[in-house]
Specification:
Layout (H helix, E strand, L loop, with lengths): L1 E2 L2 E2 L7 E6 L4 E7 L3 H15 L2 H4 L2 H17 L1 H12 L3 H10 L1 H11 L6 E2 L6 E9 L2 E5 L5 H15 L2 E5 L6 H13 L6 E3 L4 H9 L6 E5 L2 H12 L4 E5 L5 E4 L5 H12 L12 E5 H17 L18 H16 L3 E4 L15 E4 L6 H4 L6 E7 L2 H9 L3 E2 L1 E5 L3 H10 L4 E4 L14 E2 L2 E2 L12 E9 L12
Helix pairs in contact: 1-9, 3-6, 3-7, 3-8, 4-5, 4-8, 6-7, 11-12
Bound molecules: nicotinamide-adenine-dinucleotide (NAD).
The site of nicotinamide-adenine-dinucleotide (NAD) has 31 residues, from helix 9 and helix 10.
């Protein structure tokens, strides 16, 4: 792990293996940290706040962030290979993701020198008040395995722009890229202790970080259940929390839509990344008159999706990321079958490939209460429900404990915006799916999260606002009267 600029083993001396999901074999080993390592990392991050880092101006932080962006752009392909070996995601997807990731550092570099307070006109002639937005302090990031480095960058770039220091616990399934990032943070010239990595498991390292009394903010991405646990751990210290959690996003297709484009968007939404994305469009709501046509098109394409080695250029869908994921997806497929749903295509493991491969699956003839419709599966499983009216489409789309994202497919511009305004989710795409950018807020309504990442307001989530009152006359006041 990396603490205060040093690459060190876990205090316990323990290690764990990271498995390549395609081969099922270990390909790397990481230190198995615990609360002792967390204490050390948090102390290093605290100390770095009052070291050279804490004295830099926003302009100087911006220069470091830009340099880090350049280094990450230079090494995008290498980082993509680490990500693919750790997570099993397609190499071509990870190459694209890693080539885009530097933009987060460039965008937030642009924010670092614009963290401005305001001068507030006083209601009293003898006072002047102004605000400062100071770094929140030590940020602990806890991140998942599905886009390990990008989701870390969503937190790191604004935190560094704000002047915070950082401790990250990557997922125990994908510990390597955060350690690789640490080398590049050092190369960019960030002082030791600004960025620390503690590898290990959730119940040990994650829990210790979330409950740590000297952490000022926890930035978490992961499942809703773990997010709630993290919020509980943080609450005892009133540690600030932002949570990016799960989803069960709806793709709403009206009869007037370009059905080829919609079918393509539905495929992208649920089968890309083997369905292992928080924003997966896993519920298809389709106007009854085009229901069968659209299901046929999606099913036909799903049958031709090329499964295989995630490093091969021709592969369209890789394996699930780990054995627990495989078990979870198969469990939901069995429940769907038992509750009488129809498997239009797929429905089980891809036996020819073994390992963690599951077939792209479309499930029809479902009801809104079935687990395949309500629960986040985090796999390549689409459930389809027909609707008759716009009102019914909105009600079905909102009938979820989640509210991360959704899409509307229609050529009617009035309806597109009308429905977008009524959907209770943090991101709505119109005639598109799965697009994100550093400058557009992302995050969830309801059980999909708390707070937003990306966009200019995000830096504020890594600052505390301080109001400063200045008395202008030097006169004394009645000590027993407020104001
Ligand atoms: P997870 O909740 O199992 O784990 C997330 C992280 O939390 C891991 O690093 C894990 O080790 C750690 N952790 C586990 N138990 C902990 C505890 N008790 N205290 C503190 N930390 C703990 O999630 P996952 O399986 O790694 O990732 C998949 C989930 O992440 C899905 O639900 C997905 O929707 C969600 N996700 C959300 C977004 C988003 O931006 N909204 C993005 C990607 C993934």
């Amino acid at each position: 792990m990396v603490i205060n600029g040093e690459r060190i083993p876990a205090a316990s001396g323990g290690t764990f293996d990271s498995l390549n999901p395609f081969t099922g074999r270990p390909w790397a080993t990481a230190p198995d940290g615990d609360a002792t390592d967390v204490d050390k990392a948090v102390a290093a991050a605290r100390a770095a706040l009052s070291g050279p880092w804490g004295k830099l101006t926003g302009f100087q932080r911006a220069a470091l962030l830009r340099r880090l962006g350049d280094i990450l752009a230079r090494d995008a392909d290498v980082l993509a290979e680490f990500e693919t070996r750790d997570s099993g995601k397609l190499l071509r997807e990870m190459r694209g993701q890693m080539a885009y990731m530097p933009e987060w550092f460039y965008f937030f570099a642009g924010m670092a020198d614009k963290i401005e307070g305001s001068a507030i006109p006083s209601d009293r002639p003898n006072f002047f008040a102004y605000t400062r937005h100071e770094p929140i302090g030590v940020v602990a990031a806890i991140v998942p395995w599905n886009s390990p480095l990008l989701l870390l960058a969503w937190k790191l770039a604004p935190a560094l722009a704000a002047g915070c220091t950082f401790v990250v616990k990557p997922s125990d399934y994908t510990p390597i890229s955060a350690l690789e990032l640490a080398k590049r943070v050092e190369e960019a010239g960030f002082p030791p202790g600004v960025f620390n990595v503690v590898t290990g498991y959730g119940p040990t390292v994650g829990k210790a970080l979330a409950a740590h009394p000297d952490v000022d903010k926890v930035a978490f991405t992961g499942s809703t259940a773990t997010g709630i646990d993290v919020a509980h751990s943080a609450a005892d210290q009133l540690t600030r929390v932002s949570l990016e959690l799960g989803g069960k996003s709806a793709q709403v297709v009206f009869a007037d839509a370009d059905l080829d484009a919609a079918a393509n968007g539905v495929i992208a939404g649920v089968f890309a990344a083997t369905g292992q994305t928080c924003m997966a469009g896993s519920r298809l709501l389709v106007e009854r008159s085009v229901h069968q046509t659209l299901v046929d098109r999606i099913t036909a394409r799903a049958k031709t999706i090329k499964l295989g080695d995630p490093t091969a250029e021709s592969t369209e869908m890789g394996p699930l990321a780990n054995a627990a994921q495989l078990e979870k997806v198969l469990h939901y497929l069995n429940e769907a079958k038992q509750s009488g749903a129809t498997i239009a295509t797929g429905g089980g493991r891809e036996e020819s490939l073994g390992g963690y491969f599951v077939q792209p699956t479309v499930v029809t003839n479902v009801t809104p209460d079935m687990s395949v419709v309500c629960e986040e599966i985090f796999g390549p499983v689409l459930s389809v429900l027909p609707f008759d009216t716009e009102e019914q489409a909105v009600a079905l789309a909102n009938d979820s404990k989640y509210g991360l994202a959704g899409a509307i497919w229609t050529k009617d511009v009035h309806r597109a915006h009308r429905v977008a305004h009524r959907l209770r989710a943090g991101t709505i795409w119109i005639n598109a799916y799965r697009v994100v950018a550093p400058n557009v807020p992302f995050g969830g309504f309801k059980a999909s999260g708390l707070g937003r990442e990306n966009g200019i307001d995000t830096v504020r989530q890594y600052t505390e606002t301080k109001a400063v009152w200045v008395e202008l006359t030097g006169a004394t006041r009645d000590p027993f009267v407020i104001g």
